[in-house]
Amino acid sequence: MNASRAVEIAKARSSRLGSSQYSGRAHTLLERSFLAFRNSAWLAVLSGFMEPVLYLFSFGYGLGHLIGSVHVPGGHSVSYAMYIAPGLLATSAMNGAIYDSTWNVFFKLKHDRVYQGMLQTSLGPLDVALGEMLWSLLRGFAYAVGFMCVVVPMGLIQSWWGALAIPAAVLIAFGFASVGMGITSCFKSYQQMDFINIVMLPMFLFSGSFYPLTVYPGYVQGVIKSLPLWQAIDLVRNLTLGIISRGEIYHVLYFAAMIAIGLTVTTKRLTKLFLR
Predict the structure, then answer these.
(1) What is the pLDDT of residues 189-223, one digit of tens each?
(2) pLDDT for residue 39 is more than 70
(3) Which residue among 82, 119, 222, 269 is least enclosed by CB atoms within 10 Å?
(4) Residue 113 — φ and ψ, nearest 5°?
(5) Nearest CA to 252 among 174, 197, 193?
(6) What CA–CA distance (Å, rounded) separates 75 from 78?
(7) From CA 251, how far away is CA 226, in angstroms rounded?
(8) What is the gyration radius of the CA atoms in the chain, in angstroms?
(9) What is the pLDDT of residue 169?
(10) b (16+ CB within 10 A) / e for 244-258
(11) In whole angstroms, what is the distance from residue 191 CA to residue 100 CA?
């Protein structure tokens, strides 16, 4: 596209409501992310896919022989590998989205200053936010599909409801990406970014990835159930095990709220940082 054509598009959109925030060109950030992935970032994406698979084999089949079966709601018992597989899928979607929307975004904000240049064009803050989050969604989708291709032939997904685990993983990635980018836009130093790992690791260990919440006292269970990763794991686990109830609607609404809050915060922060 030449410069005169870009000016024409910008003028045509300038009269639209909300044109200063959104120009309808979020796809250009997807193109940029794809080029970066093709050139150098594919190894990081591949490592993110291998991590849950390694956990599944080491814990699911290593410790699984010692643990045996696990009781789930509905009076059923499943193998330990079958129990932890959906938790690892949800965690994989979270990790891919968080690391894309935090460290990657922080580097572009503070070091490369990529967004500052983008926002001097016809792109608006909402274009930038959506473009980065859509890339996180694609990464979450790829992780979900790849992981399902591993666990389905192993017989770890026995319900047809398990097919919905893939769109559920995309929703989870969108929720974490939106909140992650909003939080990152408030950080000012690499030292502050360490708080992300401080939060992520305990949430991974205590959100029911490897054992039921019934091992905790009742008040602790309530705290854990308020965490986004528990919401994600419970949603995916119920789908893969075919334990469907009204609770799945509340999980979806939880992540819809995360997305709305994250998009709002990110858009306002980018506007304040670069469009004063």
Answers:
(1) 888 888 888 888 889 989 988 988 888 888 899 99
(2) no
(3) 222
(4) 55, 45
(5) 174
(6) 10
(7) 11
(8) 20
(9) 92
(10) eeeebeebeebbeeb
(11) 18
